[in-house]
Amino acid sequence: MPKMRAAQVTRPGGPFEIVQRDIPQPAAGHVRIKVQACGICHSDSLTKEGHWPGIQYPRVPGHEVVGVVDAVGAGVTQWKNGQRVGVGWHGGNCGFCDNCRNGDFFGCTVNLQITGISFDGGYADYMVAPAIALALVPEELSAVEAAPLMCAGITTYNALRNSAARPGDLVGVLGLGGLGHLGVQYAVKMGFKTVAIARGKDKEPLAKQLGAWRYLDSQTQDPAAELQKLGGAKVIIATVTNGDAMAAVTGGLGINGTFFVIGAAQSMTVSPLFLLSGRRSVKGWYSGTAIDSQDTLAFSVLSGVRSMNEVYPLEKVAEAYERMESGKARFRVVLTMGQ
Ligand SMILES: [Zn+2]
Ligand SMILES: [Zn+2]
């Protein structure tokens, strides 16, 4: 039986172990992917640390996967060997529960599948995914370029395109890390008056390089007051994971404005009077499904949006994960399999 390498976690909080496993066979409705690159997302800590209920260990994390279709299971007609594909967070859904029938696949109550949590993800030479979870990767993107777009990219792109913002509207992007540096680029390319908000004057050149119209330093300025001076934001995308940092910016929403929460903060406060007096809202956003990923990749090719990445070989998974956790990576960390 041919073998492959996989970086697995055997218990909550346990270390990564690189093990030899049999190369898996795809079951009916599934596809085997020869992995070329896999991004390391902060949400992989849910698998690593066991913060998601019901994970069965050992488990291989990784939901920013790009590779080549290597084998297809029975009944798979839409994919064939040699196609380059990506797999993101949304790994599948039942298709017949009421939420699925309403098109809210992320809310599937019967069989919501999450890559790297419900089944093994992309920290390996090969992985098997439900055919429904695959996105086509355009040839213009390298595997390393495409991988972070499968979660960080789709999350920011899909939130923005599903918001009420129209070209020319004032849009704030809070945070200039892995998510935020993509969010600013997408907002700019969608034609929004894009205001990047982060801590420190030193981030301003980056914000401008990414195309931001204005930069607000939340350490020396009141971002909410500054946004109001600019007319109030139609949309603010909050990519940080600190509830106080979020709360400091909600006051920058204009009339009918929406604050999109995509960073997993523990809690945040918001003024009910401020919300109701301006019909403002706070909304969470789930990344999206495979076709949303495919749209994200296509838009990135069209508009030139790219993730800035630090690349590590699979053998250095522990070091790469630490780098992501340190918050110092510029800006996404990507594993490569050397194939
Ligand atoms: Zn992610
Ligand atoms: Zn369902």
Write up what this structure looks like:
The chain is an alpha/beta fold. Helix content is 25%, strand content 28%. It has helices spanning 44-49, 98-101, 143-146, 152-161, 180-189, 204-209, 223-229, 243-250, 272-277, 290-303, 317-326, and strands at residues 3-9, 16-22, 30-40, 65-72, 84-87, 90-92, 113-114, 126-130, 134-136, 170-174, 193-198, 214-217, 233-238, 253-261, 281-284, 309-313, 332-336. The strands form four sheets. Strands 3, 4, 5, 8, 9, 16 and 17 form a seven-stranded mixed sheet that branches. The two termini are 19 Å apart. The structure holds zinc ion (2 copies).
Question: What key attributes describe this structure?
Answer:
339 residues; 7-stranded mixed β-sheet; 28% strand; single chain; binds zinc ion; 6-stranded parallel β-sheet; 11 helices; alpha/beta
Kindly summarize this structure in a few lines.
The chain is of the alpha/beta class. The chain is 25% helix and 28% strand. It has helices at 44-49, 98-101, 143-146, 152-161, 180-189, 204-209, 223-229, 243-250, 272-277, 290-303, 317-326; strands at residues 3-9, 16-22, 30-40, 65-72, 84-87, 90-92, 113-114, 126-130, 134-136, 170-174, 193-198, 214-217, 233-238, 253-261, 281-284, 309-313, 332-336.
